[in-house]
Amino acid sequence: MNFPIPTLKDVAAAAGVSVSTASRALAGNPVISQETRDRVQQRAIDLNYRPNAQARALRSSRTNIIGVAIPSLVNPFFAEMAAAIQLEATSQGFSTIISSTSEDPAQLSDSLEVLADLRVDGILAVPYRGTEKVLTELQESGLPVVLVDRELPGTDLVTVASDPGPSLKAAVAHLAKLGHLPVGYLSGPMNTSTGSRRLAAFLTACRELGLPEQPVYRGGYDREEGYRGTGQLIDGGVRSIIAGDTMMSIGALEACHARGVAIGRDLALIGYDDHPVLRLQACPVSVIDQQVAELGRTAFHLLFELIAGASPPASVHTPSTLIIRPSSNFTSPAKEATS
């Protein structure tokens, strides 16, 4: 009597999971919980399931594809980063799959699962706090992973990020020297290393320069938060604003235009990242420039080393630079009156 050969679908049904989950579990994919992997593998044994040898060989081969998980394709900073990574990857014979995670840790975890299932050769990811486990498990499974822009303290994941400290201190000193006090700060979210590190750098700069506590708006990396926060800071009496990222910088511009506040006369403004929208204003905006394209290229080359089998390289902190333009490079009327 001939019995039908068990299929992956049979294993999935017996384990109570989807076919794709069963496939990942049998492959040892770390994005599937250990409990689920054990259950699926036991059901495969019970059914005497044997995966197709050709399929196994196919899964173990190189794909020359990398995955790139970024928070947003609307945010010009991440769009430019993705473009730089893709250009560099193409020059080395790699294709890229780009996933936008909408500043959502759960979406990032889902995207990582999909990328791992597609058997990419490596992953570049902009992480959030709370995604340490899934990223570390991917690395431990043998999949090369490099973090870019944001760090995950407490992990040994290779990271490329900019150092905000010197440029933020230079920005605060520049504003204070010209009398643009108090200075308000538009902060990013605290579940990102960039949000928390830039805020800490701003507060440290104020303290080291002998300034009293300055106003801070704790928001998020989007235009609406920049708009809302700028309004609150202006209503609170600030004479200058430093925005903590590109989208909040654009939101700050919109708020000033809506209120009839003349940047470079009524208010000093320093944005983050050297986007054309900031450069091409009637009053060009001073910025803290992270050189995003170089950030992306550096991250790709570290990933390329890992894919090639090199020992994990050291993490890299790239410098950021204050670029002074007319939006902040004027003496405050209040300072002129007391001169």
Automatic annotation (TrEMBL):
It comes from the Bacteria. Keywords: DNA-binding, Repressor, Transcription, Transcription regulation. GO terms for molecular function: DNA-binding transcription factor activity; transcription cis-regulatory region binding. Pfam families: LacI, Peripla_BP_3. Residues 6-60 form the HTH lacI-type domain. The keyword Plastid does not apply. PROSITE patterns: HTH_LACI_1, HTH_LACI_2. SUPFAM superfamilies: lambda repressor-like DNA-binding domains, Periplasmic binding protein-like I. This is HTH lacI-type domain-containing protein.
